[in-house]
Design brief:
ten-stranded antiparallel β-sheet, two-stranded antiparallel ribbon
């Protein structure tokens, strides 16, 4: 259920994410398919009912048999080919830049990741999001925009981790996680 209030206006929506996951431990291969944000607005702010921003995603992951490396590829926003907010973009000097070609459109839907997994207790990862880099980078400073990195390690009955994402020159994200299997302590 989704509930929103703005001043004296109220909106209620119903939404669900549906997914399928396949895992083959003997070949170190997994795949997933997700339908996100499926649903509708049930009570509108006024007489205009908004659509849910639904999305279709598909991902593949493959770990090498004799190397501690796992590769991942995820495609997202499969409901629309163009992800650009603007039909054309202007440079600071006023010249118009042509829209995205087919290769750029495809890469804006694709996320890439590499994980170093030497054991079940430790993981290092790095990822790249071309769309984030192309939409949030600025001409003067673009290093590492669109990149993410993280690690996870198991300590006794808990798992700790951290991830870092570079959005653009003025915005980064650092997330710390702590997870515990409560059945290991009797809950």
């Amino acid at each position: 259920m989704i509930y929103s209030v703005m001043d004296q206006y109220t909106s209620i929506g119903l939404g669900v994410d549906l997914g399928l996951f396949y895992n083959n431990p003997s070949t170190y291969f997994s795949a997933g398919f997700v339908l996100k944000n499926m649903g509708a607005e049930v009570v509108a702010y006024d007489e205009t009912y908004e659509k849910m921003p639904w999305d279709v995603q598909f991902g593949l992951s493959k770990k090498f048999t004799h190397a501690p490396i796992r590769l991942t590829v995820t495609v997202q926003n499969l409901t629309k080919l163009s992800t650009s907010y603007l039909a054309e973009v202007q440079n600071t000097d006023g010249t118009v830049v042509a829209g995205d070609n087919l290769a750029k459109r495809i890469f804006k839907h694709t996320l890439f990741g590499v994980e170093f997994v030497p054991s079940e207790n430790f993981l290092l990862s790095i990822g790249y999001n071309y769309r984030r880099m192309s939409e949030l980078a600025i001409a003067q400073r673009t290093p590492f925009s669109g990149f993410t990195a993280g690690f996870s390690m198991k300590v006794k009955n808990a798992r700790v981790g951290a991830s870092y994402a570079k959005y653009h020159a003025a915005g980064n994200s650092l997330q710390l996680t702590y997870g515990m299997d409560l059945s290991k302590i009797g809950l």
